[in-house]
């Protein structure tokens, strides 16, 4: 009889661990590196309208009353969120979201093999 061993991906492990930590009150939803809604790394889905929240000001410009645009460059390792109206739009909530996206991007890019020149 052959036993099938399922290998859990780093993303699946992280999703499960963050779900458990959030449910136990050990992790703030703002500090997750994964998205429980999309089942992805947060930097991979943060541009979704689901991640815009005018009340908490996640990806939201109060002054212009519009969602912030997201620019992620995985090669350069950069994440930016700006208001298409005024060019600013930052908030404490967006600052935390940016930090989570940068950390998530760092986890993913650290796993990639170095490019061969």
TrEMBL record:
Source taxon at top rank: Bacteria
Protein name (database record): Uncharacterized protein
Organism annotation: Kutzneria kofuensis
């Amino acid at each position: 009889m052959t036993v099938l061993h399922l290998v859990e991906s780093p993303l699946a492990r992280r999703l499960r661990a963050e779900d458990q930590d959030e449910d136990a009150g050990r992790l703030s939803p703002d500090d997750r590196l994964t998205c429980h809604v999309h089942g992805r790394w947060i930097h991979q889905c943060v541009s979704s309208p689901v991640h815009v929240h005018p009340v908490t000001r996640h990806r939201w410009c109060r002054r212009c009353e519009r969602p912030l645009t997201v620019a992620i460059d995985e090669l350069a390792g950069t994440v930016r969120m700006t208001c298409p109206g005024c060019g600013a739009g930052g908030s404490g909530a967006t600052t935390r979201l940016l930090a989570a996206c940068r950390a998530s991007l760092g986890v993913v890019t650290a796993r990639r093999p170095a490019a061969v020149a």
